[in-house]
């Protein structure tokens, strides 16, 4: 499939100009004259250089990879149909939808972009983190950096014991059962050839603990509203977790808060400083 440079450039310009600063949680300064977002603002959101993005809108530059197109589709808050159109313009076959999709819907993305001062993340039905706020990264580390099956927290729970260090030891037994329960539901929902089934097969072959928990045939275990962490920097934390489901993609927006005036609330305020420092050192990639 050949790239349609003129069509790609025109579509990118149109979608960029249609997206307003308020849509992505940015203030609209009094001196702003640009219709919609600036090119550099889109580039920052897509983790690429402003020059690289500008060349795409100018019908020049290298043939963008599938990863670049996926990042642009996410940064511009495209719907699934718009994302698929963008892939085709760039000469690529659109990725799958549903349980295998990593594309966060525009509605969920708009809510997420307004949570810059709160620990929050968007995860798949397999516990694969797609997006994190800076304070979310400060709380749990960069969970988007994993690849392969390790992207799934439930998979890491059984394959890498160090992944449990962040959680209150008294909760470990329940969390293991919950992850196995969720994986079993995903396998039944997606079928024996799904990514969920692949993860289950890998764990059944490698983890005796998983085989034991899996053998309990438990279904329907859900995350508790209060999550208890043992953070390496600030110590014990008790956070309320609110969940919003996007049923079309089966993605979850998880938002973590602490009771005002509590010790955990003060520790979150301390973590917000760490999150701000991490965000200020973020640089775009070409």
UniProtKB/TrEMBL annotation:
Residue intervals of the HTH cro/C1-type domain: 36-83
Annotated CDD domains: HTH_XRE
Pfam families found in the cross-reference section: HTH_31, MLTR_LBD
GO molecular function, a single term: DNA binding
Protein name: Helix-turn-helix domain-containing protein
């Amino acid at each position: 499939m050949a790239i349609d440079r003129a069509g790609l450039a025109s579509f990118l310009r149109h979608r960029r100009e249609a997206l307003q600063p308020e849509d992505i949680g940015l203030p609209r300064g009094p001196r702003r004259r640009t219709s919609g977002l600036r090119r550099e603002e889109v580039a920052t959101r897509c983790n690429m250089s402003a020059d690289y993005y500008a060349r795409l809108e100018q019908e020049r530059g290298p043939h963008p990879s599938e990863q670049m197109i996926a990042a642009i589709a996410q940064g511009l808050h495209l719907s699934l149909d718009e994302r698929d159109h963008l892939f085709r313009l760039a000469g690529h076959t659109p990725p799958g939808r549903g349980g295998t999709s990593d594309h966060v819907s525009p509605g969920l993305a708009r809510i997420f972009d307004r949570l810059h001062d709160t620990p929050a993340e968007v995860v798949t039905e397999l516990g694969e983190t797609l997006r994190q706020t800076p304070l979310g990264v400060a709380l749990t580390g960069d969970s988007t950096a994993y690849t392969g099956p390790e992207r799934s927290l439930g998979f890491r729970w059984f394959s890498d014991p160090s992944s449990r260090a962040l959680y209150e030891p008294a909760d470990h037994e329940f969390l293991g059962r919950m992850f196995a329960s969720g994986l079993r539901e995903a396998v039944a929902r997606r079928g024996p050839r799904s990514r969920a089934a692949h993860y289950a097969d890998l764990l059944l072959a490698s983890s005796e603990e998983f085989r034991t928990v899996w053998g309990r045939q438990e279904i329907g275990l859900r995350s508790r509203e209060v999550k208890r962490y043992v953070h390496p920097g600030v110590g014990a934390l008790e956070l309320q977790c609110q969940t919003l489901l996007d049923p079309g993609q089966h993605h979850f927006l998880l938002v973590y808060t602490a009771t005002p005036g509590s010790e955990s609330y003060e520790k979150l305020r301390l973590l917000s400083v760490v999150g701000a420092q991490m965000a200020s050192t973020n640089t775009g990639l070409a």
